[in-house]
Amino acid sequence: MEERKGMAQILAIIPGLAVMVGTLYLLRTFVEPWMKDAVVFGQKGWLVQVLSLNYILLSIIAGIIYRNVFFGGKIPDWAEAGFRTTRLFIKSGVIMLGCLYTLQKLAKVGGIAITLISVFVFGTVLFVIWYGKRIGMERSMVGVMAAACGVCGVSAAVATSPGVKAKPSEVALAIATILGFGIMTMFISPFIGKALSMSDYQFGAWVGTGILNSGQVLATCLAFNPTFAPGTAVAYGEIWNVVRVISIPFVVFIVTTWACKAEAAESCATGADKMSLGKVFKDRFPVFVLGFFGMTALSSLGWLGAEGSNTLHLIRDVMSWIFGIGLVGQGAYIDFRELKTAGGKPLKVGLVAGTLKYVVALLVIMFFVSKDASF
Amino acid sequence: MRILLALDDSAQAMDAAVRLASERGAGLTALFVLDTGWSVYIGSDFLLGSHARGDFLEYTRDDEYSQEHKALAEIKKRAQVAGVACEVKTVASRHIADEIIKEAAQGYDLLVMAAPFRRGLEVMRDAPSAILKAAPCDVLFVRGGE
Amino acid sequence: MSKGKMTVFKTDRHEDMAAMVFVSLVTVAVLLYMAYIVPNITITPTQDGKLVALKVAPDQEIKKGDLLYTFEYKDKKFVDGKLEEKLATKDVKASTNGKVLSVDVKEGDTLKKGKTKMLVLDHEKGTLP
Hints:
Chain A is mostly helical.
């Protein structure tokens, strides 16, 4: 983490970025077409049809391989600055996803999303608080796990920890648990979705409600159906994701207030920097989500071309490249060595709460949400 | 003879290093590695809004500093009680094990450290096995009390 | 020596802004390209199906909203949790004013989503095809 200035800082990005772009290019131009025709176990296209491998999963897997095999578990210094741009790419991709909707459509599905998510967020938070207390977890860590399992996984854990004064080494374990669980669900959810012949709408709603780590919702939806168009899994999953992201500040506020109410109140954020919802919102709100709504507004006005037009098609094509580049980077941040050591009480809570949420969400979606999408 | 002690929160490792140094009349150097790896550890998360990342990194940084103060004060106290001269060093890195190996290669005869090694994000990794593979000198692993 | 190295950006807002600026630039670039630079556009089907009526011929001038072709496709819909398939037809209209450069299909042809090259159109500069 040397400090670089100006030009040098930008140049430092190039090697890592080149690896990400180059990998995606090779995957999309050579590997994916090859997989479609490759004969494995006597079946043409087995890799695609049975393993549901597509360029999205391949990009993540490529990233994981770089980190865990070629780089020996570390992100080397030459690639670090470049790989860090993964955030920028995924954020850009999320913003561009706004072009899949019009405001009316958002309003239509948004209601269901908000209802489902609020129920599940508070259900999970209450469950974790109850369960965490039962197994005698420290109050600050209960807070972190409640926020993490409730809304957005790692992001919520990170956003809550300083406020509740959780021990960083414990937070590290919590993060490993959530990431590990998220990666597992990312790879198995598409199989479950296909086995139950879920519609794109159901899959998006399920994954958006049930997956612990929001960072993995989009990747999971894309693994199920790699097409960027209205009515695909990612189009629905994204609405859920946006609602979750917006709810982070609320959950952080509630959980921190709860965690600080107790006897250890003086160690929490009190006095001068007393918590207020407004302040939490200002400090914790991811501003790029506004860009998403901006994109939706543009598309509602028809400034991005009509639905089905070549212009919109090109925009979505560009978007799929931006996501793909970002996902190679995301994979490179997955270190199996770190995930393996996840343990202790955070693992217990994360596993129980995560599985419960995942399964209950699946049941609710299968029984109460029709396969037929509302748009 | 020169002994290098890789510091974490283990009192047992400190005691072992101080005892060895006083028994053999060896020079003792205590190395504390500040972990700068947190920004990489949470580096892929794109949903952290506004100051969430910054606040967290500051929070972990403050925690690193307080661990440093605690560990250094602790080892100095123990060395003083035993009448051993102890030099302390602090470096910052996101590869703690590498940093320890690098320092150990500077002409030390023995490296003393706790196993499991609980320094920064090394709790997530396995510093002892990495060090065992690449150690340039003898190594003494001290079992923790917990 | 170590203290300076641990500084980080205090905020992620600059990154969020960068993402928004990046997306704006990309979007503007795509729009400008499609409106002014792209030499001609190839119309491909949005769904698999069969071409039932073709309403344009080479060198024909078209107006926005003119019917280009009609195709038949299997409409898959979930009704009461069951996947129902029925044949449906859909009209495809011109999204901008322009001219037909070439027609590469004939009535009765099967259409492959995104694959079959159907029409090549020229479009009026400044409009989004």
